Amino acid sequence: MRIDIITVLPELLQSPFNHSIIKRAKEKGIVEIELHNLRDYSNDKHKRVDDYAFSGDAGMVMTIEPLFNAIEHLKSQRKYDEIIYTSPDGQMLNQGKSNYLSTLNNLIILCGHYKGIDQRVRDHLVTLEISIGDYVLSGGELAAAVITDSVVRLLPGALGDETSALTDSFQDNLLAPPVYSRPAEFNGWKVPDILLSGNDAAIDKWKFEQSLERTKRLRPELLQDWGDE
Ligand code: ADE
Asked: 183-224, pLDDT tens digit by residue?
């Protein structure tokens, strides 16, 4: 998979992609992540990428020209499956959307800033708008990092244990069961006996029951979504 991220702050995205699972996935050739500085696509002599809103509202708007140039430049090199704009108005990211995105080959993620991008980019170039939650971030970079992280860990070979992405919370609209490690008793606090029983079938049953109980207690609305995705 290849992910091209268009941003005014490429430095902000260096670190999230240079650690742990994403770093390893890049090293193994599972994903290629390229950061593009939007200013490199500005024809303005000061490399400006924003301007006042025609509506007269306070706040700057990311102008169409550099965004168009950047997207067209990338599109001339390969076909993109989705051109994503990170925005609080977008569809809410969830595991189903991350699963979908992980099946694609080439993505562009466009990070918004200021008061947003010229609407014509959204109307004519963007194919998918994604929000990571009902709150406003200072810019779309952190949202792009979240989307990328949640997608890359699903790519075959990205995780050490091939099956572990399947047992993540949300993968079947259930929260993950609790996990324990050694020692079996600490400070008088014990690991549930069943986990020490060696009975795999009983442990699987316990894990499912725990997932269900946790989901009912903490996120009951997820159970109503069963079968919706
Ligand atoms: N940009 C600003 N806020 C955002 C959010 N909640 N999700 C995605 N992109 C954003």
From this structure: 999 999 999 999 999 999 999 999 999 999 999 999 999 998
CA 135 to chain centre: 16
Closest CA relative to residue 109, chosen from 90, 92, 130? 130
**Which residues fall within 8 angstroms of residue 180, CB to CB, at 6 or more apart?**
191, 192, 195
Task: State the closest ligand 1 atom to the C-alpha of 86, by its place in the atom list counted from 1.
Answer: 9
Residue whose CA lies nearest to ligand 1 atom number 7? 131
Pairing of the two strands 2-7 and 106-111: parallel
Assigned superfamily of 169-226: tRNA(m1g37)methyltransferase, domain 2 (1.10.1270.20)
Cα of 95 vs centre of ligand 1, distance in Å, is 17
Q: What is the pTM of this model?
A: 0.93
Q: How far is the CA of 86 from the centre of ligand 1 (A)?
A: 6
